[in-house]
Each structure stands twice: as structure tokens, then as C-alpha cells.
Design a protein that fits this description.
By secondary structure, this protein is mostly helical. It has 5 helices and 2 strands, in the order H-H-H-H-E-H-E. The protein has a domain of 83 residues. The chain has a two-stranded parallel ribbon with strand order 1-2. The longest helix is centred in the N-terminal third of the chain and has 21 residues.
């Protein structure tokens, strides 16, 4: 009787994990069709991710027009996320800052978008 319960629990756990892996969103290819690379002056936006930068409409005056005019939302999202290496321990902090930039610049990332930072172990 006990072996049946253990087997049932293990099968249930396997099914749950299988369901979670199948339900993952498709990773969008980079570069996106129509755009081959990020613009060189994207650094104006990446600098806003720094620890001491204040993110406001005034400080993003150079960043927002760049993102809105030249790039579609999906490429803008990838460009900001992939141009700065961040320590693993600070990932939540940087995700909040990226989301704030998107909000102020009125950029709507594609559905299911996950910011994939370049991580360092420092």
C-alpha cells in the first residue's frame, strides 16, 4: 500500500514538472526580422540602469525618443536587457529599473517577454 502511494506521489510530481516545462513561452529569436542590431547610441538608455541614476521623464529625454523612433518594442526590450552585465544578486533591482524605463517611455514589450540579462557572478 505504501509503495503505491509513493509511486502516485512521484508520478504526480513528474506530471506537474512536465506541465510547467511544456507551458513555457517560446523564446523569440534575436535579432528580430527587419532589425539586425541594436543602435550604437543605446548607451543613453543603458546608463539609466546604473545604481545612482534617477529614472524620470527628464532623465530619459535622450533614451525614450531613441527607443520609440528607431526600434520596435521587442527589439528595444532585448537591446536594453542584453547590453549590460549585472551581478546575479542584483537581478530583481535591475528588472524593476528596466520595467520603469519601459513604463516611462511607453514601450510595451511583447507578451511573455522576459528580460534576459547578461549575468556575472560578482
Amino acid at each position: 500500500m505504501m509503495k503505491k502511494k509513493i509511486a502516485l506521489v512521484l508520478i504526480t510530481i513528474n506530471l506537474v514538472f512536465f506541465g510547467l516545462t511544456v507551458a513555457q513561452n517560446q523564446i523569440l529569436p534575436y535579432p528580430y526580422p527587419g532589425q539586425s542590431s541594436c543602435p550604437r547610441d543605446i548607451q543613453a538608455c543603458v546608463d539609466m540602469l546604473g545604481a545612482y541614476a534617477i529614472i524620470s521623464p527628464e532623465t530619459l529625454s535622450q533614451c525614450c525618443p531613441l527607443l520609440q523612433a528607431r526600434l520596435d518594442a521587442s527589439l528595444a526590450s532585448v537591446c536594453i536587457c542584453n547590453t549590460r552585465r549585472i551581478p546575479i544578486r542584483e537581478i530583481l533591482y535591475y528588472i524593476q529599473r528596466v520595467n520603469r524605463i519601459f513604463y516611462i517611455c511607453r514601450i510595451l514589450p511583447p507578451p511573455g517577454f522576459i528580460c534576459r540579462f547578461l549575468l556575472t557572478s560578482n
